[in-house]
Each structure stands twice: as structure tokens, then as C-alpha cells.
């Protein structure tokens, strides 16, 4: 399942729970490709089988929306750099449910 939200346009928030199909492509590479395609005001949160990775563009990180904070906001644990973090979800079977919380977390940070 792929979920794409637009928040306070032109913000792009992308969340996906289908990463296991392309095992030859690391999640961090998918996140990097997302940031290449959407270089400004973009957020990607990707999850598969309990693993989650979050990437934000540098302009988003400078506004206080950190990649690791998004993982925590959806119920995961992990960390990393302000613009990219990875971690895990306590219940990988609920990845889609967890990703549904991304938009709300971003909206809260923008207040």
C-alpha cells in the first residue's frame, strides 16, 4: 500500500508499506531517490516487515521536522541524522496503520 499526502501545499509526504518486493534495492537508496525527485519540502517514510526509514529534505529538517522524530511519532524506535533516520516498528504487521500517522505528525510539527 502506498499513501501520498499533500499537506499545506506544496509539501509532499510519501509513506509506503511495500518495500519487501524489491529486496535488491536498499531502503536508504529508495529514500535518496525520493529526495532526488522531490528536492524541496518533501518527506518520505518507508516501512516493511517492521523496518522503517524516514527521509526529509534539508529545508524540512531546518524547519524542525527531523527524520528520527517522525519514526518516533508513528510508534517506532530508532534514530539517525536530522535528514535521514532508520529504526523499527514494534509490530511490523501494522506498518500501514503506523504510516497513517505520518501526516498528523507533520501537521503537528508545522503548528
Average pLDDT works out at 79
Shape call? globular
Gap between N and C termini: 28 Å
Number of domains: 1
Helical content band = 25-40%
Determine Rg (CA atoms, Å): 12 Å
Number of helices: 5
Number of strands: 6
What is the structural class? alpha+beta
Task: Please outline the major beta sheet.
Answer: 6 strands, mixed
CATH topology: Diaminopimelate Epimerase, Chain A, domain 1
Biggest sheet, spatial arrangement of strands: 1-2-3-4-6-5
CATH class: Alpha Beta
Q: How do the helices and strands follow one another from N- to C-terminus?
A: EEHEEHHEEHH
Unreliable residue runs: none
CATH architectural category: Roll
Strand fraction: 25-35%
Describe the structure in your own words:
The structure is a single chain. With 111 residues, the chain is an alpha+beta fold. It has one domain: Diaminopimelate Epimerase, Chain A, domain 1 (Roll). It has 5 helices and 6 strands; from the N terminus they run ββαββααββαα. The protein has helices spanning 27-37, 58-62, 67-73, 95-99, 102-110; strands at 2-7, 11-16, 42-48, 51-56, 77-80, 84-88. Strands 1-2-3-4-6-5 form a 6-stranded mixed sheet, sandwiched between helices. Strand 1 and strand 2 form a beta hairpin. It starts with a strand and ends with a helix.
